[in-house]
Amino acid sequence: MTINSLHFSTAIPTGHIDDAASMRGVIGALRELHGPAYDFAVRSWHGIITFGSSPGRTRYFFVVKAEQTCQVFPNLAGLPSPLWPGDVFCVNGGDEPIRVEGDGAAFEVATAATDYPAPRLVHLRDLTDKPGGCAAYPGAFRREALPPVRPAADAADRRGVNRVNEHTLDMRIDREPPPIRHCHGAVTIGPEETVNHSETAILLPRSLYGLPEVDQTDEGHIVIYTDPLGEPAAQVAIPVRPGSVIVTPASSQRVMGHAFENAFAMLIAIPGFVAPYHMLE
Questions:
Q1: How far is the C-alpha of 43 from the C-alpha of 142, rounded, in Å?
Q2: Which residues on neighbouring strands pair with residue 187, listed in sequence order?
Q3: Does residue 64 sit in helix, strand or coil?
Q4: Are the CB atoms for 62 and 45 separated by under 8 Å?
Q5: pLDDT means per 10 residues in the chain (281 residues)?
Q6: pTM exceeding 0.85
Q7: 71-73/81-82 β-pairing
Q8: Rounded distance, CA 242 to CA 280, Å?
Q9: Which SS3 state, helix, strand or coil, does residue 208 take?
């Protein structure tokens, strides 16, 4: 099966939150790309679970699944709050643990703590839209749970305090302008020194947020450009559905690009949305 004459492929780091084997492949690819400074995991819970962190570490949890009865207790004095797919919670070393009750699953990214102001709990439904970047148009549902903090203009380390960023977009092929085709590169951290970049898309259910489905026969797809700097025409389409996880890597040795043609997704950037993007023809 093809969409727009593009061949489907599973060669890209691709998984689904319910498929343990595929998620091991995604986690392995991210670990290889980012090295020991980061770790990744899928966390599932049934009943009551607490999430803490060790000194000097920040753990970021991106909620992929949550039953209607799932509740989160963001602090010991707080009242419970419903947890939805698309929500984000973070725990720094020394913080009180976050308690979750119900059934659900989250994708975890853990790394060294910095001065980045990681929020304790963000409900996607409470954020306001902020068009910009690669989605600078109304109706993109662009909401920033972990916005970037830009480094100073003369900073050698272009990460600034960023280590993990996230925003959510509804990228559609039934509106104008269409989603842009672009790629990112590695991030400069010093003279002739870079760190690898990745952008991980986690698909969410549109209906939960009252968003109309795209009027197409496919449930959703993402186009990946496998060699945008060397062979711009090389591209594959990856079919997606809620719970799908797709990684677009960028290193000094290999860069991939993407166009999210039909995807409502959390986009997790490591080390952050600080890598300039390059438009593709």
A1: 26
A2: 195
A3: strand
A4: no
A5: 37 93 95 96 97 96 96 80 97 93 97 96 95 74 94 93 95 81 92 94 95 80 92 91 95 91 94 88 73
A6: yes
A7: antiparallel
A8: 27
A9: helix
One-letter amino acid of 209: Y
What region does 20 belong to: left with phi over 0, alpha with psi -120 to 50, or beta?
Answer: alpha
Give the pair of three-digit tokens for residue 18.
């319910």
Token pair belonging to 49: 């679970």
**Residue among 35, 1, 7 nearest 251 (CA):** 35
- Output phi, psi for 208, to 5 deg: -60, -30
* Identity at 52, one-letter amino acid code: G
Tokens of 19: 């498929």
The one-character DSSP state at 177 is: S
Which amino acid is residue 278, in one-letter code?
H
Concatenating the DSSP letter of every residue in 213-281 gives PPSSSSS-EEEEES-TTT-TT-EEEEE--TTEEEEEEE-SS-B-EEEEEEEEEEEEEES-TTS-EEE--
